[in-house]
């Protein structure tokens, strides 16, 4: 585990992010439901470079005592757009 992965693991453990399910409309114009736990799991399985970028944003959000859920919803939207199919 590298330093960024440790930071992310510690961040999500310490913040105790409540379970939330986001409803996102995909490219297929269908509603998709994605939970905070799926988004966090996706963060932990992404590339080192992407993890560093995400960690940087989380540090900024944490510094200003911002809402992490808004950022997780933003990432959920990207995941749904990436994986939803257009028929």
Describe the protein in words.
The structure is a single chain. It contains four helices and two strands, in the order αββααα. It is mainly alpha-helical. The protein has one domain. Strands 1-2 form a two-stranded antiparallel ribbon. A hairpin with a 5-residue loop joins β1 and β2 (31-35).
The percent range for strand residues is 5-15%
Mean pLDDT: 93
- Spatial arrangement of strands, main beta sheet: 1-2
What does the overall shape look like?
globular
The helix-strand sequence is HEEHHH
- What's the total number of strands? 2
pLDDT below 50 for ≥5 consecutive residues: which ranges? none
Structural class: mainly alpha
- Report Rg: 13 Å
* Helical residues, percent: 55-70%
End-to-end distance, in Å?
Answer: 40 Å
Biggest beta sheet attributes: 2 strands, antiparallel
Number of helices: 4
Oligomer: single chain
Number of domains: 1
């Amino acid at each position: 585990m590298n330093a960024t992965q440790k930071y992310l693991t510690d961040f999500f453990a310490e913040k105790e992010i409540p379970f939330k399910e986001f409803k996102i409309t995909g490219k297929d114009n269908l509603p998709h439901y994605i939970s905070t736990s799926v988004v966090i799991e996706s963060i932990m399985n992404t590339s080192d470079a992407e993890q560093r970028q995400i960690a940087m944003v989380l540090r900024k959000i944490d510094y200003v005592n911002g809402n992490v859920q808004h950022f997780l919803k933003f990432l959920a939207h990207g995941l749904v757009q990436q994986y939803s199919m257009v028929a």
